[in-house]
Specification:
The protein is mainly β and 708 residues long. It folds into four domains: 11-173; 285-352 and 362-473, no CATH class; 488-625, no CATH class; 628-707, Immunoglobulin-like (Sandwich). It has one helix and 62 strands. A hairpin with a 5-residue loop joins strand 58 (656-661) and strand 59. 44% of the residues are buried.
Amino acid sequence: MTIQFTGMATSYTSVSNGTWTNTSTWSPAGCPGTSDQVVINHTVTLNTSIGQPGLGSMIINSSGALISDGNNRSIIMKTGGTTIIYGVINIEQLDVKNLANNGTFTIATGATATFSSIVTGGGSGSLIVNGNLTAGNVNAITITGTGTVTGTSYSGVSSIFGITSLVNGTTYYGIRWTGNSSKEWNNTSNWLNGVIPNSYQSANIPGGCSNYPEISDDVSINVLEISSGASVTVLPGYTLTVIQNMINKNGYSGIILKSNSSGTGNLITDSQVSGTAERWLGGNSSIKPYHFISSPVNNASFSTIWQNGDYNVYYYNETDTSSDLDIGWQRISGGNLENGRGYAVVSHYSSRTLSFQGTLNNAAISKSVTYTNSSGPFSKGDPRGWNLVGNPFPCALSSSAFISSNSQIIDSYYHAVYFWNDLDGNMDRASDYAVRNSVTGTQGAKDGIQPGQGFFIKASTSGNLQFLPSQKTSIDHSPFFINENIYDLSVFVEGPENLQNEIKFVIIPDATTGHDKMYDALKLRGNPFIALYSFVEDNPEQYIIQGLPPVEDEIIIRIGLMAGKNGEYFFSIGNTAHFSAYLDVFLEDRITGKMIDLKMENGYKVVLKAGEYNDRFFLHFVNSSRNALDVVEAPHIQLTSHDKQVILSNYTSGKYKIGMYSTDGKLLFQSEIMPFFTEVIPSVNTKGIVILILQNESHRVIRKVFLN
């Protein structure tokens, strides 16, 4: 910014941090005095006072600051002078009595001014506060603007922001809610002078209004004060962010975070304030709906989550040394809820809303977790290291940030968070653990964990989990989590009696086909009737999320299925819009010999008996850019297609088996091609895409071929 002043006075601009009287602080070199103009872009320490007739004009830019050396320094502003503060000023005394002669002193939005006293006078001058002014004694002046003014004493001040009945020590706000029109925050008619506060500004919600704000959009504000008798309500799925300071003088009724089936209201602030945070629970009155929950307020009473007539409430005790994962559940019946702990709540009601009232958890929270080395065999899952914890904040928690901050404690093979996915509390055949790791998730589990949500983590050692303010995030309108776009693909299986299960694959540049701590997660079985999982190379562990590197040619993944019932099972994939467009996905059934193009077909049906199938089904991820419509080359093999015929030339010393399939897995042709031989596959009665598989003892090639 270039500032030009007129008149005979000298214009000084700071060129470095330093004292006011140090000539090297300024350009031109010198020491600004009375009648001069000053532009401050650095931190300048006032080590002298500026007396009559006063400093001509002063601009403190956003990078600048004028501070006192602590020796009772003062500045008199010259008659008719102009001062604008964009940065910081903090000195003992400001004398602006000469503002009576059309001078202006402006504290801009985002700026901070602190004085022990302000000497003022009446007249036509203006003290404009759009930022934040803090002073000891403020004398006889009219203050306008959209900022805040805090004075120890308002001696003879005519008005501040139009308020005439002033109380010493009170902070006054230039932006104030009136509620004249409605409850809508983003309606100018509900704010004094039509000013809706932004993220650089401060606002007050006074008592005595006919309407109080209900936030139905994401809102960010610098400072918010809720007066006695006033309230702010954040509707489900929206976030109120208070950047600097939040003051709530109306207790539990001052800030209310609503919750329903569409989501929960969020508050992001570092201030310790009281409030009410709701948590909606779905359910069914005829059965026992389970929910994993946690408290967003400090030391909430047990009665918050349990009412007379409810079923039991449990936490999970990992230190129980039994060999059964299900034995660790411990019933509680009173006391206060522990911050950061998850609880399993069972209710015989249908849908209900819990109401947590108290001091909202906005500071960092440390939660102890345990790892107990109990001995197997484990008939119902390995219990070691499993701890039920929960989001302790009144806002969404980023699962990726939480996992990253606690990576030394969370097991590297279970580097994820595990949610009980039973939104309606129906305990139906689709219920199971939804899993979220650092990049993707199953069953709707996205990055942002809503307030009041409990989840399992598997610890590799005893220690303390850290819930940090840096892990806070905003949330969208979904009932669980935040949306994001990534190259991932869901593979589903549906069985008899509405049995359902899912696994997830994600393509990441630095992933491998082996175990990747940040991208892979093992499965925690929650449904006793069905489980779908994948295997990483020869690892016998069962995975629910698997990261894969970019596919240059083909990657084959063995998948497993625990079928708990006799009957028909249907394999399919999710929306491929979120997956790489150049990858084809095939499901191979090595018992029937079928190869199904899951992108082209709706899915694959197969009748199975109850049991485990760990060597029957394989997924093939094939780079479709290698599936040319005319010529396809594999190592030492050449393939061309023309007029429904496929010509294969084998330039190797080994023979290949040949199979041609329709996209729904029907075998169209089967043969062998001998070493150093050219085979012409005869015309088949089909058009369009077919799948050609060439295989020998050491190599396997899958290609799509277009027959016209």
